[in-house]
Each structure stands twice: as C-alpha cells, then as structure tokens.
Amino acid sequence: MDAARPRKRVANTHASSDGAASGHPGRDEPRRGAVQRRRALVVTAGAALVADGVLWALGWRTFAGLPGAYWLMAALAVVVDARPYVLADRRASSVILPSICFTFAIALAWGVVPALAVQVAAVAVAGARMRQAVRRTFHLAVQHAVAIGAAAGVAAVVSLRIGPQPDWDDAVLTVAAAAAWIVARYGLAAGVARMGSHRRRRPRGRRRGVEVLATASLLLLGPIVLATAQVGLAFVPLVLLALHAVHRMVRSAGESERAERVDALTGLPNRRALQASVGDKGGRHRALLLLDLDRFRTVNDALGHRVGDRLLVEVARRLAEVVPAHDLVVRLGGDEFAVLANRVDGAPEARRIACHLAEALNRPFALDGLPVDVSASIGIALQGDSGDDCAALLREAEAAMYDAKQRGDQVAVYGPDAAHHSPDRLTLLADLRRALRDDAPGDGIVLFYQPQIAIATGEVVGVEALLRWQHPERGMVGPEELIRVAEPTPVMRLLTQRVLHDVVAQVAAWRDAGRPLRAAVNVSARDLHAGGIADRVEQLLDEYAVPADLIQLEITESALMADPHRVLNTITRLDRMGVAISLDDFGTGYSSLQHLRRLPLAEVKIDRSFVLGMATDRGDAAIVRSVIGLAEALGLRAVAEGVEDERTWRLLAAAGCHAAQGWFHARPMPPDDLARWLARYRPLRPAASPLAVSRPST
Q1: Which of 291, 347, 409, 471 is least enclosed by beta carbons within 10 angstroms?
Q2: What is the widest separation between alpha-carbon atoms in the chain?
Q3: DSSP code, position 539
Q4: Number of other residues whose CB lies within 10 A of the CB of residue 75
C-alpha cells in the first residue's frame, strides 16, 4: 500500500525534528543517508532477533505448546506490518500497525510473552519498511509492549478467555481490554512527550479521532479472528479484507489532511503547514526566511501564465534541493515562498542560509529552451526562546523583506531595535490596523486636500490628497509618520485601499456638484509591488463612474528603484486605463534617466527641499531649472512643491514651471474648507518681470 511507500523528495512535506544541525547538504548526503538507513536496518533486525531470543528462552515451554492458530496469526501479523498505516507524519505515535489485530488476540488467548514475541518482530518489519531511525522503532516497540501488557493484565484480572462460543460478558470484557490497550499506548506517548526536553504540538482533533477509531477497529477484530480460528484456520486469512478496509479509511483521512497542507501547484507545504510547524517549536532557535521573486510578474506578462506556473514549480524544486530535510520549504501564495530553518543560532547563520538560497535562485531557469533570470528579496525573522506565533513571524519577515527591497539589498534581517520597529511605533501600528479594520465613522482617518495651481494662468488644476489621522490619545498624526509606520507591513495595503476609496468618492462628489477636480494620491512601493492596486483603482472608477483622468497616482523614486520591472508593469496598466502617473520627490532618489524615459509618466514633482532654497541658493535654483528643462524635453509637466512665498513663485514662472503647490496659495484643508476656499479664490498671474537669482559666472 502507498501509506508507507517512500516518496521521492521533490519538496519537503514536513519538517522533521531529527537531523543534523542547520546547514546545507553536501554532494555526499544521499550516499551518507543510504549508509545510515542500512545501519538502522541491521541494528533493528539484530535487536528484534535478540529480544525474541530472550523471550523464547524465558518461555520455551509455552511456545512449544502453542497451537497452529498461534503460528498462523503470528505469520499474518508480521506480513501485514510490511504495510503499516501512517497518518500525517512519521512519528511513532502517528503509526498504526495492523498487526495489533493479531497480537491483541494472541495476548487474550495465550498471554503476554507469545504476543510480545510476535509484536517485536512485526514492529521491526514496520520500522524497516518506513525507514525509521532505530530510536523511533524502539519507541514504537515500547509503546506496543506496554499496551499489550495492559490489555493482558485486564484479561488476567477478569479471567477473560475467548472460546468457541463467547457470551455478552466476554464482549464487554474484550472492550475493556481494548480500552486499556489504547489508554496505555497513547498515554505513554503523551507522557514521554510531556516529560521530554521539548513540547510537541497536540495532534489535531480530526487526526486523533481517525487514529483512535482505526486502532479500536483493529483491536476489536482480534477476538473475532480468534473465535474464527477455533472454528477453522482456513477462515483466518479472510480477515485481510477487513484490514484492507481499515487501511483505506486511514489512507483517505491522511490524504485529506495532507491535501489541506500542500500547495496544489508546487507540491510544497502551504501556509497551514507552516503555522503547524511554527507552533511545534521544540525548544529550538529558528529563523523564518520570506522570499519574494523580484521579476515574476514580468515573466507572467511576457511569456504567459502557463510558463509562469512552470517557473514557480522550478523555483520550488530548486529550493527543495538546496534546503536540508530538517528544514521546511513553503509556498505562501503567488510568488512568495518561505523557509523555516531549524536550529539557527543567530542572525549571521540565518544570513548565510539566505545568501545560499539567493545564490541558488540566481542561476537561470531553462523554460522551453529560454533562459529566465529570477532573483528574490529575502526577509529574515528570528524566533526566540519566548516563542513567536506564525502571524508575528510572517509580519516581521515581510517587514524585513520590504526593507531589503527599499534599500536595494537582497537580504535583510528584522531588528526590533530599528527605529521603525520600536515599541512606540508598533503600538501605533496596532492602533492603525484596528482603526482600518473597524472602518467606523469616527476612526479619525481623514484626508486633507492641497490645491495645485497652474503658474501661467493661476487656475486650480487639481489637488493632492494628504492623509491625516486624529489618534484618540496622540492627537494629529501626520502622513510622514503614518507611512513610515505602515509601509513595511501589510497594513499599508489596508491604508491605501481606504485612501483610494475616500479620494474617488470625494472626486465623484465634486463632479456631481459641478466642480470636477483632479486629485492626486500617493502610493507606496509596497502597493506597486503587490500589483493589485490597478484592479482596485479600476473597480473604484467603475463603482463611482469617475473618469480616469480625474485620478492621478504619485510614486516616489525609491518605489521605482526597489523593483523597476514590477513597478513598470503596474503603472503601465494604470496609464492604459487613463490614470496619470506622477514621479514624486524628484531629485532626492537615484532613478536613472533611462527609467525616466521608459516610464509612462505625466509629470515630475520637484522636491520641496530644492524649491524652498531656490530664492537664496544658486545651487538649488540651478537644480530646479534643470529639472524643469528635463521635464519639458521629455514632454512632462513640472510641478513644484513647497512654494511658500511670492519670490519663489515668480522664479518658478520665469523658469517655465507648469504648476505649483504650497502655503503661498493654500495649506492642506478638509473638503468642506476647500469648497469655501475655491468659492473665494481668484486666479493670480505672475508679473511679466520676475525676480531672479543671479546665475554663477562661468
């Protein structure tokens, strides 16, 4: 049967608690594993022969007087244990031996010693068939020996002997003996686990129920076999049909549970398996490594989803090949994978493992003869002595992964001492997450709008939406602090969804009031990497019937440089929808002119740090003029931020800047205040002779 058939290892399907210290398998690991399995087989067989020899020596008179029914049932017990029933894992407590049907009957009929002799041989066969370590086979043998002793003890106390014509009392006493068997075996397993140096997770209720039901079915078949044997030995082998039915039940339950924990595409364990493994901490130091493929969306768009799926399968295969068997490789979904590394002593060792994984993925993948290059950003979270749940570890690893993307590194380790991981910010993050999920009317999350003015005409050409949060205890929290706290975490997606919804709804309200205004919304690197923002914008535009040209998204240079290929795919789709894209804070990052030329941008926004100083600093003025000229050459609008006085405004007009925003015209304000401001506003045009800063002599 397939339950105990060794599976070819394409990907780790569970994390074993046995194995060497964390590292990476060498070339001779398969050979070393084969040698260890042969050694375990020899030791197990030798120990079984010695144990049976001792039992035979102690009770040779008993064995000499046993009838043919005993020897037939003994032979069947050894044969059927060549196909043991294995549930979710290979632990001794999760293995059901079909031989217990016969050994339980032998214990009731002929006592402990004959039953133990058969059970030892059967356990040895099952251990060899499952390729278990000697220690696990020994645990399995001890559990069954104690169980047989408990059942035989109950039978001896009540003088139970199954004859050719059993009565109701025999049936009741047999059930009591079977119950003693079950309590003894699983009670011993639970006690050993509790007394050990680590805690094991409790089996899931469904699995434990199937396990107990199958065990009880096998045990209660025993007296039926015994009664049948007394009628005629020819009928005894027919019990194999009943054993087959029990096996099918166990196998079906095991396959169902494995399916719940395995990713259908790659065959790797899924998020549920990771949660179970993290919960089974076992007193070890661990590291969770979260891998996000950097250019997977490009492959999907260029070569199609079929090739993209094949790439994910190949990535899974390669990760499974380089990760040792005692670690766990998981596909979380999409192009995200995770590795749970056991027995990691600290961040340096976790970094070495991450670099090894990155090296493995950096080699091209051959798909239909075409080499495909893929890299991964890896975030690392360490599980300490106090223990972390799976959700917390994933949040920390994801924060580290986005840190790596933003810095342009391939690997980053989550550090609680970093500024954005401080307890104060974590508390603020928890409050923000709660406010966004509750989505109550009085959650304090509001949007202010700052007008953008066309410099040449003085007309209001749009507004920029700026986030504010009136925290119940901290007071007003500005956008910089909110973004700093939320961006490295999944909360950023919730925040962006909320802002997009409120902005589109407000634009629809202005349009219905007869004053259509274009609104610009800042989006983060995380939003662009996720890719779902285009779907969300399209859905909102359809829901509120808002023209796409009334919404503009602002991205930063840091978001662009973290993963330019993935960002390009997202903003290209938005551009095709008619949503304008603005490059915010231009001049403060490291974007190349090549990226600037390729991106479907509508405008560049000159960072306020240059605009504020251009009236007094020649260098800042030169930078501003250069950016305006570059935008003009590329056919883009140039918008200046931080215009706070008339002199700066006139200098921008002289340089040919298209639009400006800042306190010189208006501060950010709530929608109602903006409506009143618009009613009072009169366009202001710059004079013909602007003030100027003298140019440096050449």
Answers
A1: 409
A2: 123
A3: H
A4: 14
- Give the CA-trace dihedral at 144, 149, 155, 157, to 10 degrees: -150
Cα 660 to chain center, whole Å? Answer: 44
Which residue did the predictor score with more confidence, 646 or 251?
646
Length of the chain counted residue by residue: 698
451: three-class secondary structure by DSSP: strand
Taking only Cα atoms into account, the Rg of the chain, rounded to an integer number of angstroms, comes to 35
The burial of 609, by beta-carbon neighbours within 10 Å (0-12 exposed, 13-18 middle, 19 or more buried), is given as middle
Cα–Cα nearest to 265, from 221, 231, 306, 213 = 306
Torsion of CA 652, 658, 661, 666, to 10 degrees: 90
Q: Minimal CA–CA distance to 661: which of 408, 455, 439?
A: 455
**What does each C-alpha distance from 442 to 29, 472, 510, 591, 670 come to in angstroms?**
61, 10, 22, 40, 15
Find which of 9-18, 349-358, 391-400, 564-573 is predicted with most confidence, using mean pLDDT: 349-358
**Whether pTM exceeds 0.85:** no
For 104, 338, 426, 589, the CA distances from 168, given in Å and listed in that order, are 19, 57, 66, 86
Q: Return the structure tokens found at 306.
A: 């079929």
Side-chain half-sphere exposure of 49, counting CA atoms within 13 A: 6
Distance CA 423, CA 558 (A): 26
Task: Give the bridge partners for 338, in sequence order.
Answer: 290, 330
The CB-based long-range contact list for 673-678 (8 Å cut-off, 24+ gap) reads 674/449, 674/451, 674/463, 675/515, 677/451, 678/451, 678/460, 678/515
Sign for the CA dihedral angle at 684, 690, 694, 697 comes to positive
Mean pLDDT of 514-522: 92
Our CA angle for 288, 292, 293, nearest 5°, is 140
| Of 177 and 500, more confident | 500
